[in-house]
Amino acid sequence: MAEVRLENVSKYYGRKRAVQDLNITCGEGEFLSIVGPTGAGKSTTLKMIAGIESISSGTIYFNERPVNDLPPQERNVSMAFESYNLYPHMSVYDNIAFPLRAPRWRMHLTPQEESRRVREIAEFLGIDELLERLPQHLSGGQKQRVSLARALVKKPEVYLLDEPIAHLDARLKFSTQTLLKEFAVTYRSTIIYVTHDYREALGLSDRMVVLRKGRIEQMGAPEEVYNRPATDFVGKLIGEPPMNIIDGEMITKNRETLFTAGDLFTIRIRDDKVESMKRVARQENGRTVSRLGIRCEHIHISRKQISENSFRMPVYAIVHEAESSVVTFELRDILLYVRTRGEEGFRDYQIKDKVWLDFDQDNIFFYENTVDISKM
Q1: What values do phi and psi take at 93, rounded to 5?
Q2: Rounded to two decimals, what is the model's pTM?
């Protein structure tokens, strides 16, 4: 396995920037996910690591060895894509074995060694009973697993996986994620995994990178990215419902700092949070405005007043889920989401009921205004 390091890596197509000044390290044996919306530069980054795309500037290292000038076949990487790319005239066995037979890899395995490698990975992914079938006799989920097996069978220095389970249904996706994580731990594999699905990244990764328009928005452990989003963009991208982002005004009154969302609510900001609020506040039309972020599970809801900082609002909508419900409130042109658990009696709430809300200030954040929250 290899450590992969990108140092100031940029990619331009003419004047169009795909990625700019990426500094990313994926340690040996680490599972690193790259997350972002369409057009963020995720697949371009993976293709540059593989050598499929040239880089415009910067350096890519494998174990401190620059690989910028090495063609893909000399980088000892293995890729799996969202598309299956299976050979229709070959059996499942031969599709999986194809990388082991390719002359460019010079593996020179005996038939017994090849069979052991193919059957090991097929059994691991639960497709060992399909080895004699042709691709046209497989379901979409089975084809996806065959494609993944073909990428995993070679045991290269680095696995590069680009949306490899995007077409699986929810049940198969969950089980395949479990297998991927088990594979990474069992074989101490270096895996760089591209996905637009933040749930996959949170569940699989040792660390994750969030890209936005070709730049790194945040990089860290999954729990850090989810619980402490560095920007409003990350807060809105990671999570379902997304982080509540509320624009308001910062007011100082009677030596207290208040956050007010117009005539909707006003809360006192705890002293230890005031400095972070001031750092991102800006002047707008003679007012000091700021942007507050809080996850739905960190807002308390009750029919009775919770604290002196509580405020009342009418329920706009309720969506019941298996183990919780999401109660929604209307704030002008955005919605405020609150996740409640069964023991809190959420099933008693009705639309238009006025209830008390209270923000857990251990888990509020203040951000610079970088996204249009009404469009996310």
Answers
A1: -55, -50
A2: 0.89
